[in-house]
Specification:
This protein is α/β, with parallel strands linked by helices and 585 residues long. The chain has 4 domains: 8-94, no CATH class; 98-162, no CATH class; 190-288 and 303-371, Rossmann fold (3-Layer(aba) Sandwich); 377-575, P-loop containing nucleotide triphosphate hydrolases (Rossmann fold, 3-Layer(aba) Sandwich). Helices cover 35% and strands 18% of the residues. Helix 12 (329-335) links the parallel strand 13 (318-322) and strand 14. The chain is globular.
Length: 585
């Protein structure tokens, strides 16, 4: 079946070509995001790819091969290749053929087809983890191998569905307030309820495990609190920084009946273990020196991380991984050992630049819920945003210095183009009445900008107390310009920020681009829109990496308006066209 006037071309190499200008492109894009990954997003044709992991995530969310093929047939301009139909059925058919479950009180790997058990049981990485087989389709498991087995199976192309349940953990009553102390309603929004329900539905009466994907500013912390209220158990929250720890603590005190003595901070500053403990990834990954001759990945390597023992203490019934896409490797390894605990991952994007998405799938859980960014924007839950890429040239001397530099140095040279400084001045003048974040990668560049703008500079060296004071001043309006390094990429609550100027980034990091736009997406009191500028040196690696950074946001429906720097630096603001909201991609 095919539709001659349809927006999609399905190719036998598992790529999907979407015509952006087609009237049905938006509807098609929303459907594709459920089971395919965006690879390239030039102006007119976007390229998606169907992968085994994207299909397994879709299956875990309840989407089967039949529904996937229906979407492809509904939007495909030409007949769907037979190879694609077979691949979708084969890969989707693998999910659930192996299950980890309790059988008469014993932890077992079970197979609906004994031949599948025989096949995976002959793989060395899997065989070493399996116990004796009481029947052809069953193998006993030791509890501590549950996570490692899931990792080994997914790498072998046979993802196991884990339905073995979870220990309840030590009880703890967590109740939501009807209103906060300052009189604000304290209840979950409809989509937050749907996300929490999707998490619980995965595990039956004992609760589930998995990842919830929602835009920055959509209230992921509130969803975590809602899950805690239902779990009613001791909870460990892992997050990215001391600032994020304090924000979680403040929200728990505002939104729930928990008292201050029940909530502990476990960071580089404090080591308090309480029924609800909020820890940073940094302290958990603090490492002792490796013993002579040892290598990363040795069985005793986890022993170098003394604070990882926190994951096994206090009889936690729930572990929440905030910004789960940043999960460090040592925490991934320890998470493999705690599969009997409920695990909730919260993130704006499952993209990992180290390509370890399969570890998140295996050990924290599959994607259980994803809220489209532009749909929440249309409903007023996040602020509308205009994205602009502003291209600036080198002068001749700088262009020659770039051309003759070593390849390893070229990106830094391009990203630190001095011409960007005047461009930032012009943008700040254009947005003189707004709250502006200037965000970058390189400290020397940020120091120059802070001096030019007479604005504070916030970096990894800024103390937690100083960060909180600067953020507080920004929120009240006492401070309208803030220059920040990548420490502000994650878990920073600045709802008043409505302009971000990105002068440099972490090479082609898609997750960083999404997080930086996310600093602006909390709804504005006046209902206004946000402006996200990324400054790029044309004809350099800076421009190439910028295109890659934008991929995730393009998948969410954002389009970058391309402006020349002259449109910004023109003497009269009236002469420079104001950025307009881009059409959805």
């Amino acid at each position: 079946m095919s539709v001659p006037d349809a927006p999609l071309i399905v190719q036998s190499d598992r790529t999907l070509l979407l015509e952006v200008a087609h009237p049905k492109a938006d509807d098609c894009r929303r459907e594709l995001a459920r089971f395919a990954e965006l690879e390239r997003s030039p102006e007119h044709i976007h390229t998606y790819r169907i992968t085994p992991l994207s299909l397994w995530n879709a299956c875990a969310a309840g989407l089967g091969a039949h529904e996937v093929l229906q979407v492809l047939e509904r939007y495909s301009r030409f007949p769907v290749p037979a190879a694609i139909s077979s691949e979708v059925r084969d890969q989707a058919g693998r999910y659930g053929r192996l299950r980890i479950e309790l059988v008469e009180g014993e932890l077992m790997l079970t197979a609906t087809d004994p031949a599948v058990m025989e096949e995976v049981g002959r793989l060395g990485a899997v065989a070493a983890l399996l116990g004796e087989r009481p029947s052809p389709g069953r193998a006993r498991l030791r509890p501590l191998v549950r996570g490692r087995l899931k990792q080994a199976l997914i790498k072998a192309g046979w993802p196991a569905e884990d339905v073995a349940g979870y220990t309840p953990g030590a009880p703890l009553v967590v109740e939501l307030r009807s209103t906060t102390p300052d009189g604000q309603p304290s209840r979950l929004r409809d989509y937050q309820i749907a996300a929490a329900e999707a998490f619980w539905a995965a595990g039956g009466p004992h609760g589930g495990s998995g990842v919830l994907v929602l835009p920055c500013g959509a209230g992921k912390t509130m969803i975590g609190i809602g899950v805690m209220a239902r779990a009613r158990t001791r909870t460990l929250v892992l997050t990215t920084s001391v600032v994020a720890v304090r924000q979680w603590r403040e929200e728990l005190l505002r939104r729930t009946t928990l008292d201050a003595d029940t909530i502990g901070e476990y960071s580089g500053l404090h080591k308090m273990i309480r029924p609800v403990t909020i820890a940073t990834y940094q302290v958990l990954t603090h490492a002792l020196p490796r013993r002579p001759g040892a290598a990363a990945g040795d069985p005793d390597d986890v022993g170098r991380f003394p604070h990882l023992a926190l994951l096994e203490q206090q009889d936690w019934g729930l572990v929440i991984y905030d910004e789960v896409h940043l999960l460090p490797a040592p925490v991934i390894r320890m998470t493999a050992e705690i599969q009997s605990k409920r695990r909730l991952g919260l993130t704006a994007t499952l993209v990992r630049e180290d390509h370890r998405e399969d570890d998140v799938f295996s050990l924290v859980g599959p994607k259980r819920y994803a809220a489209p960014w532009r749909e929440l924007e249309a409903q007023g839950w996040i602020a509308p945003a205009v994205c602009c890429e502003v291209r600036v040239a080198f002068n001749p001397e700088q262009r020659m210095a770039y051309a003759t530099a070593e390849l390893a140095d070229r990106y830094r040279i391009a990203a630190s183009n001095p011409a960007k400084l005047a461009l930032v001045d012009a943008l700040c003048a254009r947005h003189r009445d707004d709250r502006v974040l200037v965000i970058g990668q390189y400290l020397d560049q940020l120091q120059l900008l802070a001096e030019r703008l007479q604005a504070p500079l916030l970096t990894g060296r800024t103390s937690a107390g100083a960060r909180q004071r600067l953020y507080a001043a920004f929120r009240t309006g006492a401070l309208r310009r803030l220059v920040v390094s990548k420490v502000a990429n994650f878990a920073v609550d600045l709802p008043e920020a409505n302009v971000a100027i990105q002068v440099s980034g972490t090479f082609g990091s898609r997750q960083e681009e999404a997080q930086r736009l996310g600093r602006l997406l909390r709804p504005k009191a006046d209902g206004g829109q946000a402006h996200f500028y990324t400054l790029v040196t044309r004809e350099t690696l800076d421009q190439e990496f910028s295109l890659h950074r934008q991929l995730f946001l393009t998948e969410q429906g954002y389009r970058y308006q391309i402006l020349d720097s002259a449109a910004i630096t023109a003497p009269s603001p009236a002469a420079a066209p104001a950025p307009r909201r881009g059409a959805r991609a």
